[in-house]
Amino acid sequence: MSNTGKKCVVIHNGSWQTVAGFSNRETPQCVIPSSYIQRDGQREAQIFGTFEMLDETQENDPNSNVYTIIDSRGLPYNWEALESQWRYIYEKQLQIDPSELPLIISVPASSSEVDMKIVHKYFELAFEKLRVPTLQIVVEPLAIALSMSKSSALVIDIGARECKITPVIDGTVVKSGVMKSKFAGDFLDFQVTELLKDRLPPAESSCQMWYNSQTWIQQFKNTMLQVCDRNLVEVQRLHEEQSNQLQPVGFQQFTSNSLTQPKNFLLKTANGSKQTISVELKDCLKLPEYLFQPQLSNKDFPSSDGLCELMSKSIRKTGATVSSLGTPSGGGNGASLTLNEKGGASSASMGGTTSKNANTATNASNPTNAPSSGISPEQVYSILLTNVIITGSTSLLQGMEQRIVNELSIRFPQYKLTTYANQILMDRKIQSWIAMSSMSNLPSWELGKWFSASDYEFVKNCAKR
Ligand code: ATP
């Protein structure tokens, strides 16, 4: 089934935020939390939408609680709430009936068994409950890569619940190379609260916790936290050595450990009180370092879940899989794509580029034409490293891109490295939605299959037999 040129509704349900709008508009109609407030015992009293939820939180009803819709793998688990959220989006934000326009939604790259169950649930919701005419389900990191005119890329998505690394080769997600860890935005929220727990009253309800993470914790991460450009432990050791060296009288102030410098943050809480909080620079660097070295926050956390290890493992596994199979394994079909300017126009501007001693194969200079057979692991490394896409709102932490470049350069020193990260703050936050919207506008978009209610009936009948 084709849907060329038709306006669609595009909904992206992330674990933290949901973005929805029309495919023929450059910006979405709404960016709302992927959670809702429910007053105890009142099923009908579900409150969706950022401002509605903020107002409800400020009223401070002790019987209200915040519930989530999406689980830690980025998939819905609370289907009733998802239905209510979509109804709210259609009615209040888009102001159309769901039966009027085709719908595009996203799923994260994950294992196929879970996918089929989830797809079935999505069909039920879209066709049976909302009566959507046609539905397309796109794989989020694939849409991001293709919308940036890249049929091969390493997509690093640092979001709220998860940090996901997805290798895409020749328009196909290489499932064996998909790496995930829980060390992302929500983990940082917890660490910020822990850091400041002695200076703040504890959050007593889930509403208060939600309010904090939507307001001051996000500002704190944005303005105070800083990713160190290399391993923080080494930097700290260096600073300590320097400050321990004997200095001439009168010069100590210039050589004192700069990591102990204070940084100030003006904190405004839900009850309107204001307080200036002073934190040492080393604490502002320490928290984001946990994303790279989780074992520093708790020795029980495996170092293999750190971002550097995940990136390295993903690249090496993809190299091994693609070269051994000849074609990438996993879902999707392996067609090579050349995207039109629409996909390119919405693509991100270039972030940092580090050129290295290029000991690379010839096709590496033209990574989008990568052959899908007879390819060596080194060629795969080269293709991925020249197309590193950094996305997800937690990647907006100061210094994140530079650190990723530095870590990849250390691990793959002989390869040319190019990273792409959208420099427009708001666009990075809604990059998945922009990518899905771009995909729906492509006239030659053949990877995206449109499903109708009759397809759903067919799937149901097959399942019964
Ligand atoms: P996921 O990818 O886990 O499904 P998502 O796509 O819904 O999540 P994102 O918008 O990618 O979520 O990331 C949300 C996280 O990014 C939250 O933890 C939020 O606090 C954090 N965040 C938002 N803006 C910034 C910023 N400017 N600096 C640092 N962190 C930020």
Automatic annotation (TrEMBL):
Report residue spans for region: Disordered.
320-374
Matching entries from SMART domains are given as:
ACTIN
Low complexity composition bias: which ranges? 343-373
> Could you tell me which InterPro entries the record lists for this protein?
Actin, ATPase_NBD
| Membrane spanning stretches | none
A Pfam family of this chain: Actin
| Family statement drawn from the similarity comment of this UniProt entry | Belongs to the actin family.
* Protein name (record): ZYRO0G17182p
